[in-house]
Each structure stands twice: as C-alpha cells, then as structure tokens.
Design a protein that fits this description.
37% of the residues lie in helices and 19% in strands. By secondary structure, the protein is α/β, with parallel strands linked by helices. The strands form 6 sheets. A 7-stranded mixed sheet has the order 14-15-16-13-12-18-19, with helices on both faces. Strands 9-8-7-10-11-21 form a 6-stranded mixed sheet, sandwiched between helices. The protein has a 3-stranded antiparallel sheet with strand order 5-6-22, with no helix packed on it.
Length: 497
Amino acid sequence: MSGGTPELDTTNIPLDKLYIDGKWVDSHSGRKIDVISPDDESIVAEVTEATEEDVDLAVEAARRAFDKGPWPRLSIGERADWVRKLSNALSERSDDIALCWSRQIGAPYNRSKNAAPFFTKTMDPYIEIAGELDLVEQKETASPGAGLLTYEPVGVVAAIAPWNVPVNTMLNKIGPALIAGCTVIMKPSPETPIEAYIIAQCADEIGLPAGVLNLINAHRDVSDYLVRSTGVDKVSFTGSVVAGQRIASVCGERIARCTLELGGKSAAIVLDDYDLDKAAKTLVDGICALSGQNCAALSRVLVSRNRHDELVEKMKQVAENVKIGHTFDEDTALGPVAMKRQLEKIEEYIAIGEREGATLVTGGKRPAHLDRGYFMEPTIFANVTNDMRIAREEIFGPVICVLPYDDLEQAIEIANDSDFGLSGAVFTEDLEEAYRVARRLRTGTVGQNAPKADFSIGFGGFKKSGLGREGGIQGLKGYLEAKTVLLDAVPETLETA
C-alpha cells in the first residue's frame, strides 16, 4: 500500500479489562471479542467480553456515584470543567482515534486523520451551553407565592453507540449526560470498542470521580440485560430500527427514559434550476462517504422526469471514476464496508433491486482488483419507484436510488412517503424555494444543496428514525428532568446545581 500502513499500538490500552467504579477490572467470563479489520480481514485486537454480573457491577457503581457521590451535587459549571478536562485529554489522542476508526471499520485514513481532531472536540459545544443554561427558572403562578421550574439530572444513563462513527456518537451521549449531572455506563459496539477504551483511559487519567463513567463490552444478549436493568434511568441508543424498537419497548414497560437515533432513507430533491454536474458530484461523493454507512446519507434522489436520464448519466460517470482502494492508500475515496455481514446484506439488496425491475446503472459488484476485504463498488439504481424495497428500506452501503417525479408536489409526496425521517436536502439556487420545501419535508434535518448536519443545533429524526434529539440545548435537556417547586416566596439563595 502506498505510504505504508500505520500501526495501531494497543499495548498501552487495557483491552483485557473493563472500566468499572474508577478501576480497570477483569470480566467474569474471561472471554474475548475479536475486532476484525474489514480492509484485510485480519484481527485488529481482542477485547474482554462482559457478563451480566459485570453489568450489575457497572450499574451499581453508576448508581452509587449518582445517589451518594458528589457528581450530581456539583454545580453545572464544575461538571463542565471536568468535561473540558476530558475533552482536552481526548484531543491528545486524536491520532489514536483516527487509526482506530480506520482499522476497525475501514474508513479511509486520508479522511479519518482529518476528522479525528474534530470528533474529539464533540463535547465542547455542550460545555459552552452549560455556561449559559439556567437550571432554576422563576415562573409566574396563578396563586399567591413563588413558582420555580428546576432542571435536575435524569440519573444513571446507558450510552449505547454504533459501529459506524463510534467516538463522535459516544461523546454526543456522555458529554451532555455528564454535564447534566448523570452518571454513565458506556456500551460500545463489539465491532468498534477501542475508542470507548480511550475515553475511559482519559477519564481515569484526569481523575474523574469513581463510578461517574464506566465501560463494558458485550454482545446483544448482555446489552439487552443492561437495558432491562432497573438501575438504569435512561438509555441513549444509536443504531438499527429493530434494536431501537426493542429498547423502546423495554423502556416503555418500566417507564424509563430513552433517546433513540435510528435509521434513515433520506431524500434529496433536485429542482430544475440546479446544475446537474454539481448535483451528481455531491450525491455520489455523499453515498461513498463512509461507504454509505451513514444513517443520514441521501440514498434517495428525486429528480424531474425530463432530467432523470441526464442526471443518472452524470452520476454514472462520477461513480465510475471513484477510487476504490485499501484503507491506507493515500488516494482512496471509497474503502470497504465495515463487516462481512454488512457486505452480504448490501449484495442481497442489489439482487432485490434488480428483481424489482429497477435499472442497475453501474456498480453492484465487488471490485475485481480487491480480492480480500469487504469492498463494494458505488452502485446506482435508476427508474426506481417508491414502492420498491430498495427505495423504502435502509441499505447502509454505497447504493443510491434515483426516482423520477412529475412536479414538485409529487416530489414532496414521495419524499414524505417513508417510514423514516432523519435527514434530507433540497438542491436549488433559489433560497426562498429551498426554505419552503424544507418546511414541508417530514424529516429531522434538511440541507440546501448538500447532505448537512449541525449537532450544535440538534440532530434526530421523525417517525421510525428515532425519539428525541442529540446536540445543542435539546440534546443536553434530554438528560434533565423538569421539577416544579411551589413556595410561599422566592428563597434568598437559588441553588443552581
């Protein structure tokens, strides 16, 4: 490989331990989980596997730190100072984070090394919000006396992150949770656990109080046990709809809180004024980013019927010039998908699309020059109708569907005719029209002329794309409970912790 392959040195990371109650401890099982590189199918690392007994210990530690420890009784400013220390410590590990991302899921290193410094600062916007957030508000009351609305931490949080963007997603959970005064149990994906170890290491190094942040690794059965634990007050989960439905049902049974960021089948509506060369490049680049393993990817492209063939041809030209290569090749634009089962799922959907009658324009195969690893060509389907499975179900790979529409009303109708509502885009140079269309789309984020997201404002979905929001003030308040306090008068000192 050009430039060589940087080595991920895990010798200084205690992957054979769990982090519980401020200590690195052995698991009860002694079993290991192999972390596999999708680039060459080698074993990147082995991490210890938690049992239900380990979950109990982590929940007990987090419960004790919340119920009896100082953490929730610190002021929000003091907690923000701790989170700032954690953020600074993580920034020192950005090179390790970049290598972890590339080695574990095959994200091209030329991108991960540039993205990692931003990912490690994910918690910083929450720190800024903490400096402006008033946790005690005075309210007018209908009867004599004083009314106060206070915001208090929800309690113990299970933070369950996915494999596609593990550090950014985990930090968008633990950052606001810690600042709110919650204690946290991190449960990373078994495919990408190493970043969570680095977070735990940084917490240990800065002396974060024991039990405030804990780490376990587990497969689905033990993860389900964590979700069912009555000691957990809230579950924050990012992942599949199926898993989210299970978590929502469990939380519903015991009236626990949950935030769910789930799947997407986001639509890009290309209006007739927009340059098709620009649209083609943006759309193909977007579906190739992270090999299409992005819940907010613009995987449905809606274009007027009289421009459909022209856009498809331009997208084909772009796709066939995408450099597919190994993770550490300097010019790689499209690396592997994250795992064998994901590749097999994508291949199955490509076969479904052909059976359904969609036109396979390009791609649909493993690249001939790559005989090892989990690679898939960028794939474009044309003449897709919205009743086809490839238009309705999340494929989570470098596969894009182009659907023709007759007029703008039909385009909006097609875009909204989906079980999902996570993201979307309107491609037009007309700012006013972009806003009008955006307001009519039933989706959590809408960008103009590109797939866009801004976690400093908020991120989350409508319909089966989830519950609640991450990022911004909404993300932080998701870890707070509102309490109404009615007194005879306003006390001299309002505690804002």
